[in-house]
Amino acid sequence: MSRPEETLPPDLFYNDRESRKYTTSSRIQNVQSAMAHRALELLQLDSPSFIMDIGCGSGLSGEILSSVSPVDGGPHTWVGMDISASMLDIALQKDVEGDLLLGDIGQGIPFRAGSFDAAVSISAIQWLCNADSSEVNPQGRLTRFFNGLYASLRRGGRAVCQFYPKNDAQRSLISSAAIKAGFGAGILEDGPGTKNSKLYLVLTAGGGEGQGDITSVVKSIRDVDVHDERRKFRIVGKKGDRRSNKAEIIRKKEQMEKRGKITKATSRYTGRSRRRVIF
Predict the structure, then answer these.
(1) What number of other Cβ atoms are within 10 A of residue 128's Cβ?
(2) Residue 76 near residue 66 (C-beta atoms within 8 A)
(3) What is the pLDDT of residue 137?
(4) Who wins on pLDDT, 81 or 9?
(5) CA atoms within 13 A on the CB side of 103
(6) Are 52 and 24 in contact (CB under 8 A)?
(7) Which residues pair with 53 in a beta bridge?
(8) 266 phi/psi in degrees, rounded to 5
(9) What is the SS3 string spanning 51-62?
(10) Which residues have a Cβ under 8 Å from the Cβ of 83 and sit 6 or more positions away?
(11) Phi, psi of 186 (to 5 degrees)
(12) pLDDT digits over 177-208, tens only?
């Protein structure tokens, strides 16, 4: 059985017919509800928050965000973004409480920096890994998405993205793009080794407690398997001096540019040790 993202782009796959079928299926509603509650649990929000619902579809996850009781830290305010006009039309017909935006997350997240306290995404980001034509670059789409997501979250904000990777290569492609964007990131797997296995990419935007260490996000949850891939991207220069490494300097400059700061242009001399000249 072929995966939906391998047949058509999401804006074409989720036409009026598929959108109605997705929204009215009791099985899909139950699975979506369970994953949305799990993602909300991993966000660990203890007060009403402003949340972005990425790939919000017809608002199934958003309705859960709106229904959180004050005792559990809610209700939350949310903005949903989706590429399918048909899905958003159903959300409008249901009169969901969140605001809705039609847009392609692979082109970036068009919100002001630091707008959101948190973000959630259910079964959406794996669509970014598929190229519908030779002009589409999955890695570029993932980079634009995670860069925009990082910028739109307040420092210390969290995001939880449930996704279905096709294979380990796709799983690594997604997690590495998040890490390169500046996130503290790790993958949590529910039901490993079973057909009902679910993967959650847990992200922190830094600046908060633990400085982006996602292990604090799940410290109170038992029987989970956290796969932290940040170690693969720790680049150390000569004699352990990270500052002497050109790649590390370029990475830091890119992070500064994302925050709107002006940096010097990269050249062949970047990262090269300079001889001291005494006059």
Answers:
(1) 28
(2) yes
(3) 87
(4) 81
(5) 17
(6) no
(7) 80, 120
(8) -80, 135
(9) EEEECCCCCHHH
(10) 9, 10, 11, 55, 102, 103, 104, 105
(11) -155, 160
(12) 999 999 999 999 998 888 888 999 999 998 54
Residues with Cβ within 8 Å of 248's Cβ and at least 6 positions away in sequence, in order, are 235, 237, 242, 271
Q: Check if the beta carbon of residue 147 is closer than 8 Å to that of residue 159.
A: no
Q: What is the token pair recorded at 225? A: 């398997």
Q: In what order do the strands lie in the sheet with 225-227?
A: 99-102, 77-82, 50-54, 116-122, 153-163, 198-204, 184-190, 225-227
Q: Please identify which residue in the block is written with the tokens 């990419």.
A: 201
Q: 197 is written with which tokens?
A: 């296995």
22 in Cβ contact with 14 (< 8 Å)? yes
- Residue scoring higher pLDDT (127 or 211): 127
Residues 117, 141: contact at Cβ < 8 Å?
no
- As a whole number of angstroms, the distance between CA 61 and CA 33 comes to 7
The C-alpha atoms of residue 55 and residue 80 are separated, in whole angstroms, by: 7
Please name the residues in contact with 1: beta carbons below 8 A apart, sequence gap of 6 or more. none
What DSSP state is assigned to residue 26? H
CA Rg, the chain, in Å? 20
- Rounded Cα distance between 191 and 166, Å, is 17
Could you tell me how many residues make up the chain?
A: 279
Per-residue pLDDT averaged across 125-148, rounded? 86
Cis peptide before 75 (omega within 30 of 0): yes
Q: What are 18-40's pLDDT values in tens digits?
A: 999 888 899 988 999 999 999 99
Return the amino acid letter for 134.
Answer: S
Residues 6+ apart with CB under 8 A from 133: none
Centre a 10 Å sphere on the Cβ of residue 238 and count the other Cβ atoms it contains. Answer: 9
Q: Are 156 and 207 in contact (CB under 8 A)?
A: yes
Rounded to whole angstroms, the Cα distance separating 239 from 18 reads 57
